[in-house]
Specification:
The chain is α+β, with helices and mostly antiparallel strands. It is 60% helix and 10% strand. The longest helix has 34 residues.
């Protein structure tokens, strides 16, 4: 599968995942072993929303890379969380001395985006 996917492929995967959730599927707390993406479990298989990788229940990863990918993904997510936390601290410090209201608004919106990203990242880490 190509890593360069179209917006249409992405939309199709998201709709498919939403359909599985409506039918009773669940989001897993384990990242995809191939790409680190969010996975949905339904019936006897787990499907990655991001890359489409499917794993049947009880199946084991076949390669060494797949076995260490979740640990690497968790480490990568922790690194992302750390970077976002630094950005939040810097932005908050900048906002403290900012007097221009329009600039304050821009920075507040950026801060809100950083906080959402941080929340999602930490939820994926567990």
């Amino acid at each position: 599968m190509s890593w360069c996917m179209s917006a249409e492929d992405n939309t199709t995967r998201i709709r498919s995942a939403a359909s599985l959730l409506v039918k009773g599927g669940t989001l897993t707390n384990e990242p995809c072993p191939k790409c680190g993406g969010v996975q949905v479990r339904f019936a006897d298989k787990t499907t990655c929303i991001n890359c489409g990788n499917e794993v049947k229940a009880g199946a084991q990863p076949k390669t060494k890379e797949e076995k260490i990918a979740p640990a690497q993904a968790s480490t990568g997510l922790a690194s992302v969380a750390s970077i976002i936390e630094e950005k939040i601290a810097l932005l908050a410090a900048e906002m403290r001395s900012e007097s221009d209201i329009s600039v304050q608004k821009q920075k507040a919106e950026l801060l809100e985006s950083y906080l959402r990203i941080l929340e999602k990242t930490k939820s994926l880490i567990g």
